[in-house]
Amino acid sequence: MNAPDRAELDSAQRLHADLAAGKPRALSRALSWVENGDPGAQALLALVYGASAPTPWVIGITGVGGAGKSSLVPHLARHFAEGGARVVVLAVDPSSPLSGGALLGDRIRDAAGAAPANVFFRSVASRGGQGGLAVCVADLIRVAAVGGRDIVLVETVGAGQSELGVLDIAHTVLLVSAPGLGDDVQAQKAGVMEVAHVFAVNKADRPGAADTAASLRQALTLSERVAHMREGANTLSDGQPHWQPPVLSTVALTGQGVDALCARLSEHRDLLEATGQRQVLDRQRDLRRMQAHFQAEVQRRLAERIATLQLMPALEARLAQEGANPLLAAEALAEAVLAASSEALTAPFHSPDSQETTP
Q1: pTM of the model
Q2: Where do the structural domains in the chain lie, given as residue ranges?
Q3: Which of 48, 80, 225, 251 could staple 85 via S-S, CB 3.0–4.6 A?
Q4: How far apart are CA 93 and CA 103, in angstroms?
Q5: pLDDT along the chain (359 residues), means of 10
Q6: What DSSP state is assigned to residue 100?
């Protein structure tokens, strides 16, 4: 990655100053810089990560598609904003695997009702990120922190049971389900069910909602260790705190149940702060972001070295031969790249029981 030039540094410093001053347009511009990887993003992130801004409370909202996450999130944002919090909503929308484009729903979500002035909506393209999240979400959260935001709501794309990326960035995870989506079966399976701290059965005015809620509660109390516990904060026999995920019912179209849901979310935040776990999660998020950036940087540098050594044309030609083993070819490529030499590519790419033909 090239170092930013003087103009990029100056632009980043001006934007960072406006961001720290709480200017909404600066927040919008900074989020765009980071998400799009603009030339000044590197310099801006250096300033953002170097700032001592308080970390916002991050709520991850996940669940299968069709559960009503996008309808519920504006109600959550409005509730917290009316209590005086400055809220950012980062709604991750799926990117096309072919074109890379995404339908970003800022205006669609905002049209659900007039959002308070202290609520900022931003749609973010997933750009191939794993676990229903964009890779840059952790950076966007830090940008929001410098912008003086108290709460960040992160809505994932809704990938399903394996959507565990939200755990890497959120303090509190809300799993939204709905009747008729197979939740009574999904409740018995491993996955995001195990990492959610609060459950919301949305569309609770529809038939089957009570059964869905009952199935979730049953799945959450299968263990004898927690069968007797009440929902929310508990104290174990050894004096250690334990959080038993509560199950609540909501109707996003009307806002029914939102106040009770937000109260439970806040209760979980209070427990994290009382036990010091919130600070631990902040450090873990930074560690995971470092690991992700390290992997991306290594891949970028390896790609540059492969291009510099001009290894691929000969490699592709040899792989086109009948019986070539792509696994052996990959190992030879790794040896060539790490040694900065094409000598390793002269080794056979064929399995022991096959013959390599000379072109």
Answers
A1: 0.84
A2: 8-52, 53-228+243-275, 294-340
A3: 80
A4: 7
A5: 79 96 94 92 93 93 88 95 95 59 48 72 73 76 96 82 74 92 54 84 94 90 82 90 95 95 98 96 92 90 88 85 86 82 60 49
A6: -
